[in-house]
Design brief:
By secondary structure, the chain is an alpha/beta fold. 30% of the residues lie in helices and 17% in strands. The protein is built from 20 helices and 29 strands. It is globular and about 75 Å long.
Length: 693
């Protein structure tokens, strides 16, 4: 670790190089003093009345209302797009039955509703590192209540494939309420796109326009020449490339770097604009408390930052349901209830591509599950038959003969359990069937171009028949505020190789003309993720995918930093056996048997806090525990909480009742993380084995 003196000198040099700038109230201004490594730096001062950092001027009541519409849907302003993105980040329009907005959320602090309407005055900075497909976007929010005497920065990378504002309503709200600066990044994966038909692309600020006019303000383009574009559009009209899948940069490999960049940006603007009253020597790693935190992909990025930081910039990590590709476990084992789990430590591309093959068939075992009414039962039964063969991960011929045709769905469900999914997650498998997740990650890891159409996949807007059609201008213009990081809504996955011509993947048909959920494409992705010895088809792509995947792996070495991870036991998007459980073991190994990670596994919780009918009565929100975990870590960082609580299972109580009519969640449903959990609830690491009760 560099000396405090060395770090202070580096900060002073940076501060001297940055000229002080006055900020016009509520007006975005290009910063006259560029920061090394960043460009397109702007700043906006929000007065906390007409607009603000936390609610974008909507107040808590506005966050509970409908999506705020722009004055001109074809040409939304930067401020309107920002307002939509912040509204979406809070999620408060979903209602309070599941506790959001009542027991936890942007308007709740330490379990109590906040007074007022939530508006927080302060200054917001936006900046970019890299260019085009290599670009990464950053936002830093500094509230007027920033505590200069005990400065803190909360680094909150985007969740999922979301945009740079996607954590404002969660970690951002939590940090702003404590007078911390909050540093966000889209991790290079945000919702930028290139509509190859119209030539429309997204600028760094979320606005859209012709690629030829945006020039150096474009956050992404597909990297095709004009001639290549013309040929591509003639062969496959109306397609769209999007950044996460088609940037050819494998952005997941640099998540940790990008989170650390966001912290350095925050310290730089603080040293420049908040020097008065700063600690002696300025805002540095030695004087500023830095907490890296995130959810899902953002949780994995926070962990990556903790591992990549070898200079003491980050003080602690809090992650919720982190999506992490782990290094080979090499002897790390996981046991639950005294039994070895069937599989642990698989990367997302492997367990997800396997699940996509199995889920339509396994769904037949859960006729009451959400989404079952839309399941094509005959197609699902045909999928069952197609899974029978020599692959032990699917359904073996021997087992199929014993079970008979009617028993195949049960065998598919068992195959998911063998793959490391929890037995009780069967109810969620259909609602998590999402073949575009493994398809897009395969493209990302392999650094594929849009014109490679890896495994015959593309993206486009479609009509009711599933045929690709042109995007409306308003749909492209709204993408910054409404897209989850994939193709602009209502874009969908396309099966380019369907026998009758390209069609929406959900309507894909096999060679016999019958609907088959695009078995061909899913087998292709699965084959790249699990290449078979001697196979020649796709060998080059499989090697590229493996190399890209290896660049994203996490070792478990947080260099002694404390970390608190919360995860729902029933998670069907990021199964606990492939993420948090084995990571606890890896970390303990790097710490010679004494883990610096405290792991909290929550029963009856999964990857989404959605409270739709069928989920409302069965599951509790993990977000409640994420907010509590932040509070617990904060107490430790501020010297008031001692050690982190031991790793444990928190046993919750579902709301019960009929689907769609569950009673309101109460504190009795969600017991607190225990400072001293019962022996039967403790998670332990014993001789390289993670033992989960």
């Amino acid at each position: 670790m560099p000396s405090v003196r060395h770090r202070r000198n580096a900060t002073l040099l940076l501060t001297t190089a940055l000229a002080a700038a006055s900020l016009a109230p509520a007006t975005a201004v290009a910063d006259a003093a560029p920061l090394p490594g960043f460009h397109h730096l702007t700043s906006v001062r929000y007065d906390g009345t007409g607009d603000d950092l936390l609610t974008a001027g909507l107040g808590f009541e506005g966050l509970r209302g409908p999506l705020p519409a722009p004055a001109d849907p074809d040409r939304p302003t930067t401020a309107e797009l920002r307002r939509q993105a912040i509204w979406a980040s809070a999620g408060m329009s979903a209602g309070s039955g599941g506790g959001l907005g009542r027991l936890y959320g942007a308007n709740i602090d330490r379990g109590r509703p906040l007074p007022g309407d939530g508006r927080i005055a302060g200054t917001e900075y936006r900046a970019v590192a890299g260019r085009g497909a290599d670009s990464v976007s950053f936002v830093v929010q500094v509230p007027d209540t920033f505590d200069r005497a005990r400065p803190c920065v909360v680094a909150a990378p985007a969740t999922g494939l979301g945009g740079v504002y996607s954590m404002v309503g969660t970690a951002g709200a939590w940090g702003l309420h404590r007078g911390c600066a909050v540093a966000y990044t889209d991790k290079g994966m945000g919702p930028a796109f290139d509509d190859l038909h119209s030539g429309t692309v997204m600028a760094y600020d979320g606005t859209t326009g012709p690629r030829t006019e945006l020039d150096d303000r474009s956050a992404f383009d597909a990297g095709l020449t004009d001639a290549e574009r013309a040929r591509f559009d003639a062969a496959r009209p109306y397609r769209v490339a999007y950044k996460m899948a088609h940037s050819r940069t494998d952005p997941q490999a640099t998540w940790g770097r990008d989170v650390l960049r966001s912290v350095r940006l925050a310290l730089a603007v603080l040293n420049r604009d908040r020097a008065s009253g700063a600690p002696r020597g300025g805002y540095t790693a030695a004087t500023t408390t830095v907490l890296a935190t995130g959810v899902s992909n953002g949780g994995g990025a926070a962990v990556a930052a903790g591992e990549d930081d070898r200079t003491g910039l980050v003080d602690a990590v809090v992650a919720s349901e982190p999506q992490m590709n782990l290094a080979p476990l090499n002897g790390i084992r996981v046991r639950q209830g005294g039994r070895a789990v069937p599989a642990a430590g698989l990367p997302l591309i492997r367990y997800n591509s396997l699940a996509s093959l199995l889920q339509p068939c396994a769904a037949l075992t859960e006729p009451s599950a959400p989404g079952y009414a839309t399941l094509d039962v005959p197609a699902a039964r045909r999928r069952c038959a197609a899974l029978v063969g020599d692959d032990p991960r699917l359904i073996t011929r021997r087992d199929a003969r014993r079970a008979g045709e009617d028993g195949l769905p049960r065998l598919a469900a068992r195959a998911l359990v063998r793959a490391g999914y929890q037995p009780q997650s069967g109810y969620l498998q259909l609602s998590h069937y999402d073949p575009q997740t493994p398809a897009s990650y395969a493209m990302s890891y392999a650094r594929a171009s849009v014109d490679d159409a890896l495994c015959g996949y593309g993206w486009a807007r479609t009509d009711d028949s599933g045929t690709p059609v042109p995007y409306r201008r308003s749909e492209l213009a709204a993408a910054f505020g409404t897209s989850p990081g994939r193709a602009p809504a209502p874009g969908t996955l396309i099966d380019e190789n369907a026998p009758g011509g390209p069609v929406a993947d959900s309507k894909s048909r096999g060679a016999d003309g019958r609907h088959d959920y695009n078995l061909r494409g899913e087998r292709c992705v699965y084959g790249l993720a699990f290449p078979q010895p001697g196979a020649t088809d796709g060998r080059g792509w499989a090697a590229r995918l493996a190399a890209g995947l290896d660049a994203t792996r996490r070792s478990g070495d947080l260099h002694g930093k404390p970390a608190l991870i919360v995860h729902g036991r029933d998670d069907t998007r990021v199964p606990v056996n492939h993420s948090s459980r084995p990571y606890l073991g890896l970390n303990a190994r790097t710490q010679h048997g004494t883990s610096t990670v405290s792991y909290v596994e929550v029963t009856h919780a999964h990857h989404s806090d959605a409270q739709t009918p069928g989920l409302d009565n069965r599951y509790v929100p993990l977000g409640y525990y994420y907010q509590q975990a932040l509070d617990v870590m904060w107490q430790r960082l501020r010297g008031r909480g001692g050690e982190l609580p031991p790793s444990q299972v928190v046993r919750t109580v579902p709301r019960g009742g009929e689907p769609g009519h569950a009673p309101e969640l109460t504190p009795a449903n969600v017991p607190a993380i225990a400072a001293d959990p019962a022996a039967g609830d403790r998670v332990r690491v014993v001789r390289d084995t993670v033992r989960v009760p």
